[in-house]
């Protein structure tokens, strides 16, 4: 058990329920609910503060938790910091959606974020004497790739962009990131990776392409909530 039944924060109040050392972190709390109800045995809800649903159960005999994080760097920054530093979580796997930048990426493709470029200022709090290369945990990345291979699931691995802006006034920005080989755009991974690195724990971002920035292609909110099962099933194996 990673969490004391007596610990709580302003944002996470388990009321005696356990939080496992490995947790899946979708942005959408309803996706967390879907995963708990679809995949976990004997799920117990450990959070509902601000509607950010969290559950702990077992998957193939291993204890695992899942919890929503909301949208953007500030939101996942809060939740991941508390999960790591208050509740003792050791492995944090973001599972989310992303907008593709590269031509060889299509709807429903899976991306592992090996690195996370960002236009966020989140790293400034650490007062580092230079620019920090924000990267995933190799331990989780290697295990996720092995799991994908065993499932016969093709994945893309590389640099992603964590953006603070969903509606960017600079219309040329996406093209510049594309030219640098960045695979896709999401809004949370860099903060998760930074918090994990500072605390010496593991983090990985697994994404499903929900839309393409340069093509008129996108999925619906309902599809994003319940249909990204291949990504979920890879993440669940990391417990």
Automatic annotation (TrEMBL):
The active site is at residue 211. It is an enzyme of class 2 (transferase). The keyword Transferase applies. Transmembrane segments: none annotated. It catalyses: a purine 2'-deoxy-D-ribonucleoside + phosphate = a purine nucleobase + 2-deoxy-alpha-D-ribose 1-phosphate; uridine + phosphate = alpha-D-ribose 1-phosphate + uracil; a purine D-ribonucleoside + phosphate = a purine nucleobase + alpha-D-ribose 1-phosphate. The record marks 224 as: Important for catalytic activity. GO terms for cellular component: cytosol. SUPFAM superfamilies: Purine and uridine phosphorylases (SSF53167). GO terms for biological process: purine nucleoside catabolic process. Residues 23-233 form the Nucleoside phosphorylase domain. Its EC number is 2.4.2.1. One of its GO terms (molecular function) is uridine phosphorylase activity. InterPro entries: DeoD-type (IPR004402), Nucleoside_phosphorylase_CS (IPR018016), Nucleoside_phosphorylase_d (IPR000845), Nucleoside_phosphorylase_sf (IPR035994). It comes from the Bacteria. A purine D-ribonucleoside binds at residues 11, 186-188, 210-211. Phosphate binds at residues 27, 31, 50, 94-97. Keywords: Glycosyltransferase, Transferase. Belongs to the PNP/UDP phosphorylase family. Homohexamer; trimer of homodimers. Catalyzes the reversible phosphorolytic breakdown of the N-glycosidic bond in the beta-(deoxy)ribonucleoside molecules, with the formation of the corresponding free purine bases and pentose-1-phosphate. PANTHER family: FI09636P-RELATED, URIDINE PHOSPHORYLASE. This is Purine nucleoside phosphorylase DeoD-type. It comes from Paenibacillus typhae.
